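ingest -> validate -> predict -> emit
validate: passed (alphabet ok, no gaps, 253 aa)
predict: started
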Amino acid sequence: MPNYSVTALVIHKTVLGESDLILTLFTKEEGKLSVVAKGARKPTSRFCGASELFTLSRQLLATGKSLDILNQSEILNTFTHLRFDLDRLARATYFCELLDRLTLERDPFNAEELFELTTAALSLLQSQEADPDIVTHAYELRLLSAQGYAPVLNHCVRCGNELVRGQAGFSPSLGGTLCAQDRYRAEDAVSLSADAVVILQTLAEAGTDEWLALKPTYKVANEIARALRWYIRTRADRELKSADFLDQLRANR
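emit:
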């Protein structure tokens, strides 16, 4: 069987038989792949660590008839600090599920961009100085943009007029922000304060240092989370289990 090498991030795993795993990888070279890690569930397996969620590794794969097979793995980063903080662990898991849902199998188009975006987001999420929700929403917006699903945030999607500072709306089905007049003409519109609109625009367009410095109030943070939650649900066309858990964590907090 021909072999090939990839730099891979584990974004999902499924039990196969008594000791094997099917790993969903997002690779820098080929995009999303599903591979078999034989014996990975055994405590003594050489693939035990490399098969953990959001583990980054250099892998040697063998081409198989239906699924390719993991032959060798060199771990590069395990994002260890994420595993000891429930808030950050939940968001890292969500990143992986969202990436899985918004990408196709073996689609190398913009694979390197998505790979770099996700690994950078996981690295930022490990930083105790970074607001985990700010990192999460920046990742959501930039992943959506890379996949052609970027919401409109600079003008009203219904009339085309620029937004004036003040109360606005956001419609998941129409694909973005609404002016103060049109926010009442969309059945699924949720309200957005002027501060929430500005923060969404900053998260989508500004450099990392600028959006990492954002400190939204609890109310504004809730507005942003709700708008993006419904927008992603509409675009993903199904519920994301990790997003539901994240909602519970936010509510408890």
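Residues 20 and 38 are 5 Å apart (CA to CA).
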